[in-house]
Amino acid sequence: MVTKLDEAELKRLESQVEHGGGGAWEYLTLVRKLKIRRSDKVLKHGLSILNDSKKRSTLADEEWTLYEQVAIAAMDCNSIEIAEDCISVLSKKFPESKRVGRLDAMLLEAKGSFEEAEIAYSSLLEDNQLDQVVHKRRVAMAKAQGDLHKAVGCLSRYLKLYMADNDAWRELAELYISLQMYKQAAFCYEELILAQPSVSLYHLAYADVLYTLGGLENLQTARKYYASTIDLSGGKNTRALYGVCLCTAAINQLAKGRNKEDKESVDLQSLAAAVLEKDYKYRAPSKLPLLTTTLKNLKL
Amino acid sequence: MAEDLVLDTAIRNWVLVPLSVVMVLIGILRYFVSKLMRTFQTPDGKIIKEGQVIIRAKNLRAAANFIPAKSFRARRTYYNNEENGLLHVPKGQAPNQAQMFSDPNMAMDMMKKNLSMIIPQTLTFAFVNFFFSGFVAAKIPFPLTQRFRSMLQNGIDLSTVDVSYVSSRSWYFLNLFGLRGLFSLILGEDNAMDDTQRMMQMGGFGFDPSKSLGAEKDGLDIVQHDWVLPKFEQRAEAVLRKLAK
Q1: What is the mean pLDDT of each run of 10 residues along chain A (300 residues)?
Q2: What distance in Å separates the CA atoms of residue B209 and residue B212, rounded to the nearest whole number?
Q3: What pLDDT is stored for residue B206 in this prediction?
Q4: Which of A78, A151, B125, B170 could form a disulfide with B154 if both were Cys (CB 3.0 to 4.6 A apart)?
Q5: Distance between CA A203 and CA A196 in Å, rounded?
Q6: CB contact, 8 Å: A278 with chain B?
Q7: Where in chain B are the domains?
Q8: Alpha carbons B221 and B210: distance in angstroms, whole number
Q9: Which residues of A touch B241 (CB under 8 A)?
Q10: Searching chain B, which residue's CA lies closest to the CA of residue A194?
Q11: How far is CA B73 from the centre of its chain?
Q12: With an 8 Å Cβ cutoff, are A129 and B45 in contact?
């Protein structure tokens, strides 16, 4: 988790380094610790340290960590040659290391030779079934090749082992949505809501999936989750406001002729519409007519 | 009030200071020896998985009311059913202590841990007892109550000596438990580990994951599902009303 304090520190160091104030190594260490992606900057400042043998020797054992970090950043920036150099230095220092083997496989992947990379990753996995990074790389590779079904397969195999990994659940949900497997996606979002019940975005995504699934029961549930999104986000989420309106309209259409829903929910959608109008008036007055016609079409 | 005892300066030079130095040196030596003997433990997949299952089941128990009843029931069955539920541990399969000991790797690790802890301790204790026993080694500059006698005057059976005098064996114990700060200075923050911590680690052995699985299962069984989302509709209304004004 990146806390506010870390972020402020990171920003401070980043601007300091950018303006030539030194502290590049501290910046790189922080980036590594927080596991954030600043590949261009890591590449630039990391290389400047690596190319300076005096600075490099002050790092002692940390030097190899820096090589690894720069190699990964270089692959991310498509500077394959730099990555190759770093990895060859590392494999000379640590022959037969699994960690360097992982970098080799990533290099193959970065070059686009997916089949060889796949072989390398599989052999790494055979040695160590528990390697999270390799599991995730395989998912990413399947996704890069456009083979979403395989990505789903790999990811669910990973989740069988590491089933408390929220990011993986989110990725799986998004994959399922791209495959239009909404029931499965709903399950993933339920899992995310369980893990972090107060994150309104998960409620929103779950409601979207339920709305897409359709059917009276799902629509009613979806509206409830849109409502919870509104509550958790303090009414700031426009998508949730629209969601309430759309759900109510769809429910009315389905429940036509049958006994009407309780009065309270009618309140909810008219309030949502009112807030939407007010928001548009304030922020985008030129689009207000569009909104009014949309809402009219929904027969609210 | 007994007269003040005068401590010979030779005691300081030959007991108090050497004892402290020996303790520090032994601590450092022990650190390096244990570093040599440390083995890299490959984590066991089954244990990782059980830990993750427990986290997920805990989440389910804590936030059950945030998902629809149907989804909750499906999950509970998934965790708790008697055939292949994730939290269900078949009887007789639970690993017991004997099995753990029969695993040579585990026994070896235990041995190493024990060796690096018990042997130097016994040796230093014997060493201190042999060379430095029976001295009144130091005097602390403030008075203490009788209760501290057993702590500060271990090894001297005189009830008339003032409690602020410290015997040599007690000085050994004070050093044993009190040098952590010094070690963290010498060996670096993360490497200092005092004996109290080691002892705690010892107590952690024999942890049985199936027990926590069972506890989590029982916890899940008694959860009453009460979907909170309907309430959220009213709360959302209140939020919107405020905004619409």
Answers
A1: 81 84 84 88 88 81 89 92 92 88 92 90 87 91 92 93 92 95 94 92 95 90 92 90 90 72 67 89 89 81
A2: 5
A3: 45
A4: B170
A5: 10
A6: yes
A7: 9-244
A8: 16
A9: 271
A10: B63
A11: 38
A12: yes
List the structure tokens of A162: 């590491």
ipTM: 0.79
Chain B interface includes A267 (CB < 8 A): yes
What angle do the packed helices A200-213 and A216-233 form, to 10 degrees? Answer: 160
DSSP chain B: -PPPPPPPHHHIIIIIHHHHHHHHHHHHHHHHHHHHH--PPPPPHHHHHHHHHHHHHHHHHHHGGGS-HHHHHHHHHHHH-TTT-TT---TT-S--HHHHHHSHHHHHHHHHHHHHHHHHHHHHHHHHHHHHTT-EEEE-SS---GGGHHHH-TT---SSS-TTEEEHHHHHHHHHHH-HHHHHHHH-GGG---HHHHHHHHHTTT--HHHHHHHHHHHHHTPPP---HHHHHHHHHHHHHHHH-
Question: For residue A18, what pLDDT is reported?
Answer: 81
- Residue B105, phi then psi, degrees to nearest 5: -60, -45
Residues of chain B whose pLDDT is less than 70?
1-3, 38-42, 90-103, 116, 189-210
Residue identified by tokens 């601590």 is: B27
Residues of B in contact with A221 (CB under 8 A): 68, 229
Please check whether residue B85 is in contact with residue B199, taking contact to mean a CB–CB distance below 8 angstroms: no
